[in-house]
Amino acid sequence: MYIHWFTQPENSYASCYLYDTETHAFCRVRIELNRGDEDGTFVSFRSSRAVGFVADGQNYRTSQNARWSINASNRLCYDATPLPQEPREGYTVFDSTTPATFIHRGNRITTTPHLPEGISSENMIELARLVMLEQTTQRVQLTTRDATPAELRDAILNAIQARR
Questions:
Q1: Cα separation of 32 and 15, whole Å?
Q2: Does the predicted model carry a pTM greater than 0.85?
Q3: What distance in Å separates the CA atoms of residue 76 and residue 64, rounded to the nearest whole number?
Q4: Which of 44, 78, 123, 141 has minimal CB crowding within 10 Å?
Q5: If you write DSSP's letter for every residue of 99-158 in order, what string do you get?
Q6: Distance between CA 27 and CA 45 in Å, rounded?
């Protein structure tokens, strides 16, 4: 079964996540323009990743790796307690493949993602699903960090079309 959710950074476009609860395959579409790193906008895929959602994300320390683990059911745990698996508006998402080295803390989940004009939530989910089907080990680069919203829109639509 697939679940999806969107997270909303303060000053950019939303990210879309797609997760297969049975195989634990994970895909993220990150379309934040002008982010502080040089990664640009992209789609990433992991064949297996653990996720969890909490209401009080500020109380979970990603720098304290010893407190994080993945149990035998591929559930992300904090202090040995599995995190909830249902994305809910306002919750913080955490995900990891190897908690001993890195835990990703996402932004809060939103049901009203801010997306480039001409891009729908369905477009974002479709792109994530198509990249997940490819099972690529490389990021799918969409744009540079300083692309225009129109360039980002076109890159998303072109990436979908190329995979149909």
A1: 7
A2: yes
A3: 14
A4: 141
A5: TTT--EEEEEEESS----TT--HHHHHHHHHHHHHHT-SS-EEEE-TT--HHHHHHHHHH
A6: 4
pLDDT in tens, 82-133: 999 999 999 999 999 999 999 999 999 999 999 999 999 999 999 999 999 9
Tokens read off for 99: 């908690």
**Cβ(96)–Cβ(114) under 8 Å?**
no
| pLDDT at site 8 | 93
How far from chain centre, in Å, is Cα 146? 20
The structure tokens listed for 9 are 């950074």
Flag the least confident range among 28-37, 48-57, 110-119, 136-145.
Answer: 28-37
Contact 3, 102 (CB under 8 A): no
Residue pair 70/95 in contact (Cβ under 8 Å)? The answer is no
Write down the pLDDT at residue 83: 97
